[in-house]
Amino acid sequence: MTTLKMGLIGLGAMGRHHARLIRQTEGVELVAVADPGGDPFGVAGELAVLPNVQALVEAGIDAAVVAVPTIFHEDVALALAAAGIHAMVEKPIAHDVAAGIRIADAFEAAGLVGTVGYVERCNAAIVQMRRRMAAGQLGEIYQITTSRQSPFPVRIADVGVVKDLATHDIDLTAWLADSTYASIHAEVTHRAGRQHEDMVVASGKMANGIVVNHTVNWLAPFKERRTTVIGEKGAFIADTATGDLTYYANASVDTEWEEMAAFRGPSEGDVTRYAFAKPEPLAVEHLNFARALRGEPNSAVSMREGVRTLETIERVLAAAGISN
């Protein structure tokens, strides 16, 4: 197996993890890193910290991971495409849809592998849930809800909670539903004194009739990462912070105790928390990228999917009265 020469641009909070996992991915070698701001976490090791994407290209890489702030995604990605270098771009694909389309077009025109880093799709709880949904365990799917709440992360400076956090929920919901958003409504608030929104509640309906709801904020004094799918046969709850998946089955046995039936509900059945392997999601993301580069079966998120997610994100912002 030929070793892939990988570059990394952006050595911040996410870049440090990308550097670690590139080095751990079989058949991949981290040969060059770049960041005009230096190496605050000391992840370069023996590698020189290059100043920009042009220097990264000149290092002779086969592919690159783009972990710079969102506003710089387009410039960096287009430079890589022009140089014939495959890329995985951190989510969201770009700062707006027009830029995302330009990136996707450039990689397709050059015949390059281009993916977007939606790491939640690589979480074992979500992967297991989607597999069981596809097998019909829930029957018809009625509703998908997500809750993604936590304190404000100081690493975020250039976007609000919608493009940074809610983008995960928009992407994984469309993936789980195997559909697109037919309608979306939203409300946001600004409570932390920043330019960008820090709370959003969005609801809508998928093209296949599934209703959805997303609660996302940076103001909770706890961390919550939960996706709930309700169907005709029961419900799944995936906790992507812990990687746990729990199944709540609808009852197949009637409750004879009338008062308890009224309290519990007529459809409460067995509850099962599944046991399965839980690899680090970002490691799975890198494995998918490497497989895509080799032309092997993979679950990498395409740039076109990234553009569709960004289109929905912009619809959320527009529905909340925020111009992009």
Automatic annotation (TrEMBL):
Residue ranges constituting the Gfo/Idh/MocA-like oxidoreductase N-terminal domain according to the UniProt record: 5-118
SUPFAM superfamilies (UniProt xref): Glyceraldehyde-3-phosphate dehydrogenase-like, C-terminal domain, NAD(P)-binding Rossmann-fold domains
Any one Pfam family match given in the protein's UniProt record, by short name: GFO_IDH_MocA
Keywords: NAD
Domain GFO/IDH/MocA-like oxidoreductase: residue ranges: 127-236
Keyword Cytoplasm included in the entry's annotation: no
Top-level taxon of origin: Bacteria
GO MF term list: nucleotide binding
Record protein name field: Gfo/Idh/MocA family oxidoreductase
Organism expressing this protein natively: Galactobacter caseinivorans
Lineage of source species: Bacteria, Bacillati, Actinomycetota, Actinomycetes, Micrococcales
